[in-house]
Write a structure and sequence with these properties.
Layout: H1 14-46, H2 54-75, H3 85-112, H4 118-144
């Protein structure tokens, strides 16, 4: 009986491996930030009586700060940083756009569609987070965490 050899697997290209590592790390950081934002938004809305839009802003700022630190020192650690406040300023500005996307989705659900229940509120939050996250990933790679110099 002839022994069969295991099939050789070709390792993925380094660029793909880097992309996959970044995407998975970014996803984990994003999930953590989303949990901070959703828990905080629901806490502010339900227990502290915040408006549905205002209750999104404060937890998102806390989430953004956490996300910057985790993305800079873990997800995109291999990318250049000029060490100035430029990176932080652009990061927060782009997160402002991401926050605007989230607030628009939440406001649209609450004010335009007239859906005031907890499930609708959280679905609006999640839609905003999804769209905002797609924008953030693209913009971070393009303007914040630039490729390392050769």
């Amino acid at each position: 009986m002839q022994r069969s050899r295991p099939a050789k697997t070709v390792p993925p290209a380094p660029a793909f491996r880097t992309f996959l590592s970044e995407l998975l790390s970014f996803g984990f950081v994003g999930c953590l930030g989303t949990l901070i934002m959703i828990f905080g938004a629901n806490l502010m809305r339900a227990w502290l009586g915040g408006s549905p839009v205002t209750s999104v802003v404060v937890p998102t700022v806390v989430s953004t700060l956490s996300s910057y630190l985790l993305n800079r020192f873990w997800t995109f650690r291999h990318r250049d940083s000029d060490g100035s406040g430029r990176e932080v300023a652009i990061f927060f500005a782009l997160n402002g756009v991401g926050l605007l996307i989230q607030v628009l989705c939440t406001g649209f659900t609450y004010y335009t569609l007239g859906l005031h229940g907890g499930i609708a509120y959280n679905l609006g939050l999640l839609a905003g987070v999804g769209l905002g996250s797609a924008f953030r990933y693209w913009s971070y790679k393009k303007w914040v965490f630039t490729p390392a110099a050769a």
